Every structure is written in C-alpha cells, then in structure tokens.
From TrEMBL:
EC top class, as a word: transferase
Enzyme Commission number(s) from the entry: 2.7.11.1
Keyword vocabulary terms for this entry: ATP-binding, Kinase, Nucleotide-binding, Serine/threonine-protein kinase, Transferase
GO molecular function, one term: protein serine/threonine kinase activity
Reactions catalysed according to its record: L-threonyl-[protein] + ATP = O-phospho-L-threonyl-[protein] + ADP + H(+); L-seryl-[protein] + ATP = O-phospho-L-seryl-[protein] + ADP + H(+)
Xref: PANTHER family: MAP/MICROTUBULE AFFINITY-REGULATING KINASE (PTHR24346), MATERNAL EMBRYONIC LEUCINE ZIPPER KINASE (PTHR24346:SF30)
Binding-site list for ATP: K40
Pfam families: Pkinase (PF00069)
Keyword Iron-sulfur: no
Superkingdom of this protein's organism: Eukaryota
Origin species: Homo sapiens
Positions of the Protein kinase domain: 1-215
SUPFAM superfamilies associated with the record: Protein kinase-like (PK-like) (SSF56112)
Protein name: non-specific serine/threonine protein kinase
C-alpha cells in the first residue's frame, strides 16, 4: 500500500467502477472539498511497452480544456503506479451532454497544424482511408472523417463500413460507399457526404465544419 500513501493524503477511495487490461478505475472523494472524482490506477509493470502511450494520454489531457472533455485534475506517479485523477468518469453528464474520456491513442503533431503525421492508431472502422493506407496525413483531415463515422453511428445506430474480415472492411472504407437510411434529413445526408470523402482534399475542412449550418 506504500504506493497509495501520497494519494490517500488527498482522496478517500471508494468502490471500483471499471476495470480493463491495464487499469482499474475507482470512485473517490477529495478529502477537503468532498468532490467526487474517478481515479484511473495503472501498474507500470503491467503497462510495459504501453507506458509511453499512457504518457501521451496524460500530456493530451493536461493541454485540453473543454466542456465536452473529461478533465484531468491531478497526476500522481510512484515507482510502481500511475494515478490519474479525473472528473467522474461519465460519458454523459447530468445534462445528457457527451464527454470524451480516452486519449490513449491520440497523436500529437510536432509542428504546426500543417504537420503531417504517420502514426496509425485507433479503431479500423473509424480510421480515415489515408491513415489505413499507411500514408502521411493531416490530423485535422483524418479527424473529420472519424467524426463523420461517429455522426453516422449516432444518427443511424450502426457503422457505415463494417465487416468481420479486416481486408473486406479495408476495401469498403477505400470504396467509400455506405447505406443512407430513409430517416436521415437531406441536410444531414449532405454533411455526411462532405465529411466521408475518401480523398482528404475533397473533405470538408475543420473550419467549415464548425461553421456548418447543420452543426
């Protein structure tokens, strides 16, 4: 329990609310303020080669402040453990607003917004064509595609490109053809078409997406 000594100066640990391959998440209470938080507890020995990925996630969360991103309050590191103290680990808040919580597979550009990335990460079903081809890519362009996939799933209830066979899924993504359910509005169909362009240069830009009438 020595690894927990510093943590227990500030937080009272409660029940485990989640477990995964590399971590467990405990509900906790800040001793002075009474605020409830979620603490992600990771064992460095178990993480092994995934430790750099966790460091990337921590750096990303330290630099992000947004109402729809789960806020990182505190990081404690001992010889054997990493503790990430986050706001309560909910995907929906009390107002039914979505929260982003996992940045373990993010890629951070080393230069400006026009810096090309080469990291291949994330779920294949959400990955942009240029990413799965192994090409260098602009993060903003690939993100627009992935957001288009997510938007489709939220509106339709299923993925636009899906297959149990990886190669078949790869071909479907590269083809860029998907079903358009009859309940989608014309404006949402148009937005999906603009976001899910196989050619990243034909894809709607992040700036234009933020100013899109449908959004």
């Amino acid at each position: 329990m020595k690894d927990y000594d510093e943590l227990l100066k500030y937080y009272e640990l409660h029940e485990t609310i989640g477990t995964g391959g590399f971590a467990k998440v405990k509900l906790a209470c800040h001793i002075l303020t009474g605020e409830m938080v979620a603490i992600k507890i990771m064992d460095k020995n178990t993480l092994g080669s995934d430790l750099p990925r966790i460091k990337t996630e921590i750096e990303a969360l330290k630099n992000l402040r947004h109402q729809h991103i789960c806020q990182l309050y505190h990081v404690l590191e001992t010889a054997n453990k990493i503790f990430m103290v986050l706001e309560e680990n909910l995907l929906f808040d009390e107002y039914h607003k979505l929260k982003l919580i996992d940045f373990g597979l993010c890629a951070k550009p080393k230069g400006n917004k026009d810096y090309h990335l080469q990291t291949c990460c994330g779920s294949l079903a959400y990955a942009a064509p240029e990413l799965i081809q192994g090409k260098s890519y602009l993060g903003s362009e690939a993100d627009v595609w992935s957001m288009g996939i997510l938007l489709y799933v939220l509106m339709c209830g299923f993925l636009p490109f899906d297959d149990d066979n990886v190669m078949a899924l790869y071909k479907k993504i590269m083809r860029g053809k998907y079903d358009v359910p009859k309940w989608l509005s014309p404006s949402s169909i148009l937005l999906l078409q603009q976001m899910l362009q196989v050619d990243p240069k034909k894809r709607i830009s992040m700036k234009n997406l933020l100013n899109h009438p449908w959004i």
